[in-house]
Design brief:
The protein is of the alpha+beta class. It is 38% helix and 9% strand. The protein folds into 3 domains: 90 residues, no CATH class; 158 residues, no CATH class; 96 residues, no CATH class.
């Protein structure tokens, strides 16, 4: 009985480690990974283990976090959680395996490098070139894209559009990032696939080196980056980075993509930030929105309900009075823009970004 009573007694004083856990110490990410992997019920292969450690060392470096070793009870709880996660992962329905398209280099793509002959009529080569909006063909939001509201001189190659072989699966997660754009005769913009860009790059560099073009090239291959960080360069209007190079003693002869064109490209490639007020203004005018703070005239129009709560103006006459002369959208495009942003950036739109402030909060971040 004495032994039974002793075993049933609870300690009058609880140790801190039983109340708050064992003491914590600072460890690097790789050390934390090593310690936790020892308590797992399964062990990854040595190749995977080395790859994970290398990534942790490369990206984590000497960064340390508070960590602690596990007691036996915590180890069992951790094992149960891991086993439960593995079982949930097994039961989760994964998308079907999809095969990639085999790339093709069309003759018409090669002909774009000819700067001496007559200009190609891109519309007559529909098997190779498509309007820009067709980049969203097969996505869940293509029906909201308002096809007539995009620049007529903006194109994509069919190879840019072809990414995977699919029957009915929505292509929201398989959109090709619009990185390589060919400025054709300084009049058309054509987004091409990396495979096509690789060939065009070599051919245009050869033309530039051999002097086959007597004056500044009117057809150039450029890199366009979405501005996903503040103060990030988008590169597309940098003369030293065009192919062939557009370096001259004066900027007068260089072809810069106009800011009106850039506004549409910002929507298309999912940019989140603006360089200055001019880009922000062009973006808002392109979408036909008047975010806050508004001018006295705009505020008066808002009070009269000519401007919607999110800032959109659908009436063409009201737009003209408010000095918006090139908004192509007749239906509010903000929901579409949000879906494009989420698809391009694989994340929810943050209202702290410049574009997020306009699309979600209806406010100007730069003023």
């Amino acid at each position: 009985m004495t032994l039974l009573a002793t075993e049933c007694l609870e300690p009058e004083i609880l140790e801190l480690k039983h109340m708050y856990g064992v003491p914590k110490s600072t460890q690097t990410l790789s050390e934390i990974y090593n310690n936790r992997s020892k308590h797992c019920s399964f062990q990854p292969s040595s190749e995977i283990n080395k790859a994970v450690l290398k990534r942790l060392n490369d990206y984590g470096g000497s960064k340390t976090l508070l960590a602690h070793s596990f007691d036996e009870e915590q180890e069992r709880e951790l094992e149960q959680e891991i086993e439960q996660e593995i079982e949930e992962e097994r039961q989760r329905e994964h998308p079907a395996y999809l095969s990639s398209h085999q790339p093709i280099l069309h003759k018409e793509i090669k002909d774009l490098c000819n700067m001496q002959g007559s200009m190609m009529d891109l519309a007559t080569h529909s098997s190779v070139f498509s309007p820009l909006v067709n980049a969203f063909l097969g996505t869940s939001f293509f029906g909201e894209c308002q096809p007539c509201s995009w620049q007529k001189n903006f194109w994509i190659s069919t190879e840019f559009q072809r990414v995977i072989q699919t029957q009915r699966e929505p292509l929201d997660m398989y959109l090709r990032p619009p990185r390589w754009v060919l400025v054709y005769r300084n009049k058309h913009l054509i987004f091409v696939s990396p495979f096509e860009a690789n060939w065009l790059l070599g051919q245009l560099q050869f033309i530039g080196r051999t002097g086959q073009c007597d004056k500044l090239p009117s057809t150039t291959l450029r890199l366009l980056l979405p501005r996903t960080k503040r103060n990030q360069s988008i590169l597309v209007n940098t003369p030293t980075l065009t192919i062939p190079s557009s370096i001259t003693t004066t900027d007068i002869s260089n072809f810069y993509i106009p800011i009106r064109w850039l506004a549409e490209l910002f929507v298309f490639n999912g940019s989140l930030y603006f360089k200055n007020v001019c880009e922000q203004t062009a973006y808002c005018k392109y979408l036909g929105v008047f975010p806050t703070p508004r001018t006295a005239i705009e505020e008066d129009a808002f009070d009269k309900r000519l401007i919607s709560n999110d800032g959109f103006v659908g009436n063409a006459d009201i737009r003209s009075k408010l000095q918006i002369d090139y908004c192509p959208f007749h239906i509010n495009p903000l929901a579409l823009v949000k879906k494009i942003l989420e698809s391009r950036n694989k994340a929810q739109v943050s209202p702290k970004s410049h574009v997020g402030a306009i699309v979600i909060n209806g406010s100007k971040p730069i003023y």
